[in-house]
Design goal:
195 residues; Rossmann fold; 6-stranded parallel β-sheet; two-stranded antiparallel sheet; globular; UPF0227/Esterase_YqiA; Esterase; AB_hydrolase_fold
């Protein structure tokens, strides 16, 4: 019997309650079989990138599973690159912020979470923490699956496509940053992450 730890990382100002996270979690439960089980880990990420990655790597390091797969959306996609390189594992990137420090620099200050309106302080030093987690080049494109929307209103799909050259790519005409029709593409995600 073998097992997979599936780590899902939500985006900036988002949470484990986001629709993509919930949908993916429910779908992954159906993948578990007697021969291969899936453990689901979808934490509430912290404002500090460094603390977020310390929390996630601690969970991964304690895991007794045979393999790790990471799925990340937006800022979570940026973190997924870091983890996939660190653990040489598969990663699915959903409209990832490939240059998160640059994208989030304008957002330093008090922010609120999307689904709870809870305030949090996004500090200037967090931009430096993001820079220290930056992956310049993915080492093994075969381990990556990019889903990018041409209609993403926040990030440039062309930059994503260039960054993941040689990886599995699904470039969506239209759509949006949240990938409104994510449910339609979930089977492709599950196929990619299956052992």
């Amino acid at each position: 019997m073998s097992s997979t730890l599936l780590v899902y990382l939500h985006g900036f100002r988002s949470s484990p309650r986001s629709s993509k996270a919930v949908m993916t979690g429910e779908a992954v439960k159906t993948l578990s079989t007697a021969a291969h089980t899936f453990d689901w880990y979808c934490p509430q990420l912290l404002a500090s990138p460094k603390e977020s990655m310390a929390m996630v790597t601690a969970c991964i390091d304690q895991s007794k599973t045979d393999r790790i797969v990471v799925i990340g959306s937006s800022l979570g996609g940026f973190y997924a690159n870091y983890l996939a390189e660190k653990y040489s594992c598969k990663a699915v990137a959903l409209n990832p912020a490939v240059r998160a420090a640059r994208e989030l620099a304008p957002h330093v200050g008090m922010m609120t979470s999307y689904d709870s309106n809870e305030p949090f302080d996004f500090r200037p030093e967090y931009i430096e923490e993001l820079k220290s987690l930056q992956v310049e080049r993915i080492s093994d494109p075969k381990r990556y699956f990019l889903i990018a929307a041409k209609g993403d209103e926040l990030l440039d799909w062309r930059e994503m496509s260039d960054f993941y050259q040689g990886a599995h790519q699904l470039i969506l005409e239209g759509s949006d940053h949240g990938i409104a029709e994510y449910a339609d593409h979930l089977p492709r995600v599950l196929e990619f992450i299956s052992p």
